[in-house]
Amino acid sequence: MGSHRKTAKMKKQLDYYWRLFATGLSFSVFGAGGFLLWVVVFPILNMIPDSPAKKRLRAQKCVHYSFYLFIGLMHRIGIMTYEINGLEKLNRPGQLILANHPTLIDIVFLLSRIPYASCIVKKKLCHNPCMKGPIVNAGYISNEDPEKMINTCSDYLKSGGIMIIFPESTRTIPNADYKFQRGAAAIALQSGAVVTPVTIHCTPSTLTKSEKWYQIPERRFHLSMTVGEDMVLDDFQAIMPRSIAVRRFNRYLQDYFSQQRRRNEYCPGK
């Protein structure tokens, strides 16, 4: 009996150290891949004559394939498992996808399933050598100037583009109430886009705002993504002035995602 417990403990330790190594390997691959996209892949793709819009779409598709392979790598080497419910509701022209943001890889996971999409990025990432290539070539939008950001995102959606936005603007603080910024709500109402909520849940919790990459959980984590029904904006569009409409829709978003989180906590996944 003692021998079995000792063997089980040793297997658990080996699994932990393997996942620690594999996590470091994955992030190294991600960084190297982003740098190669910047200095090798995108310069070659940009040599193909085409309009700026088509070049941007080509770059977005390239990022999509890269992230698809990255998620596949993390899955195959035993770091994570995942499930997706309602993927068929995504990938529609002029669609604004609003999601909660529990982990570092949420945007990677979403873009790995959406071939053509833009998103909002922090200003400092535009100077990161591992991220600069995808950001510049795929036309991701900086949050440096909030008013310009809202107008640019709205115009992109009106032109038929797909946007992914985290209303929190940063990763969720564990065990804290959601505090959404109003930018996502303002973009939704200004653009009149199809607004689709996506709820992401991670068990055990990992890669949060308060954790380093090497602080891995006791077992591989499970990431679930559930696509909700489109949100009806008519009642909010009718509210004047627009600032009040934005405030009320933002509160509606907070309530929706808070309810989804409570449901996940009450009925946890794997």
From TrEMBL:
InterPro entries the UniProt entry points to: Plipid/glycerol_acylTrfase (IPR002123)
Span of the signal peptide: none
Pfam families named among the record's database cross-references: Acyltransferase (PF01553)
SMART domains, per the entry: PlsC
Example of a GO MF term: 1-acylglycerol-3-phosphate O-acyltransferase activity
GO biological process, one term: phosphatidic acid biosynthetic process
Every Phospholipid/glycerol acyltransferase domain range: 95-203
Transmembrane segments: 20-45
Pathway(s) this gene product operates in, as recorded in its UniProt entry: Lipid metabolism
Top-level taxonomic group: Bacteria
Keywords: Acyltransferase, Membrane, Transferase, Transmembrane, Transmembrane helix
Protein name from the UniProt record: Phospholipid/glycerol acyltransferase
Lineage of producing organism: Bacteria, Pseudomonadati, Pseudomonadota, Gammaproteobacteria, Methylococcales
